[in-house]
Amino acid sequence: MRGKLLFVAGAALGYVLGSRAGRARYEQIKTVSGKIWNSNGVQKSVHDVEGFVQDRTPDVADFIGEQTKKVVRKVSSKTSSNKGSQIS
Q: Of 8, 80, 1, which is closest to residue 37 (Cα–Cα)?
């Protein structure tokens, strides 16, 4: 979903910047995109996503912290066992 949204936004931006239609077409696109962005449906979706992200942020932070600890322990144990098997 995020990728599609970024693609559409990038395509629209590229069209506006690369367009030879001039200022009038730019203003028309700007007006239409502003109406879409400010529509009730889009703003409701934005609000829902913001709430979802705020609810999930602590869970994601905990998950990343735990996974990082696991990786550090694994790397540390491999490093320790490799030092013992090296010939001096």
A: 8
